[in-house]
């Protein structure tokens, strides 16, 4: 019993994933942000999601550490690959929880295999390339 508990704890610790949302452009106002996005070629290098790990395993408890290193608010969701309806999110952190500089920790265990993606669905961000394909096996 002790051994199993220890093993689960170790799994959680070694599965820590740092998801970094990077945004280089200063865009304090929505109008300005929209203008910036229109200028940005797709995929826009300034709106991206980075993760040291993009392949995950069903049944393993993961701890996602989501840090907004940008200058605009972002949201973060695990979505089926290509889905744009946020109602389909497996897990989601809203933009009011992720202002610039914020770090949010979420624990999640995948229950199904498949092609998914980390994505930000703040207006215009996904279209600007703010997504990262991931695989669950
Ligand atoms: Cu965003």
Q: Please tally the β strands and state the result.
A: 9
**Low-confidence residue ranges:** 9-19, 21-29
Fourth CATH level, the homologous superfamily: Cupredoxins -  blue copper proteins
CATH class (first level) name: Mainly Beta
Structural classification: alpha+beta
CATH architectural name? Sandwich
Helix content: 10-25%
Order of helices and strands: HEHEEEEEEEE
- Global outline: globular
Average pLDDT for all residues: 78
Backbone CA Rg: 16 Å
What this model shows, in words?
The chain has 137 residues and is α+β, with helices and mostly antiparallel strands. The chain has one domain (2-136): Cupredoxins -  blue copper proteins (Immunoglobulin-like, Sandwich), CATH 2.60.40. It has two helices and nine strands, in the order αβαββββββββ. The protein is globular and about 40 Å long. Copper (II) ion is lined by residues 47, 74, 120, 122, 125, 130.
């Amino acid at each position: 019993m002790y051994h199993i508990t220890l093993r689960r704890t170790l799994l959680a610790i070694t599965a820590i994933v740092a998801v970094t949302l990077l945004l280089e452009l200063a865009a304090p106002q929505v109008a300005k942000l929209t203008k910036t996005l229109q200028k940005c070629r797709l995929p826009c290098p300034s709106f991206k999601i980075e993760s040291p790990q993009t392949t995950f395993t069903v049944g393993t408890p993961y701890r996602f550490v989501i840090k907004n290193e940008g200058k605009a608010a972002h949201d973060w969701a695990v979505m089926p690959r290509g889905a744009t309806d946020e109602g389909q999110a497996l897990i989601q952190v809203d933009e009011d929880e992720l202002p610039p500089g914020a770090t949010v920790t979420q624990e999640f265990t995948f229950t199904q295999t498949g092609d998914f993606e980390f994505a930000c669905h703040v207006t215009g961000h996904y279209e600007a390339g703010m997504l990262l394909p991931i695989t669950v096996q």
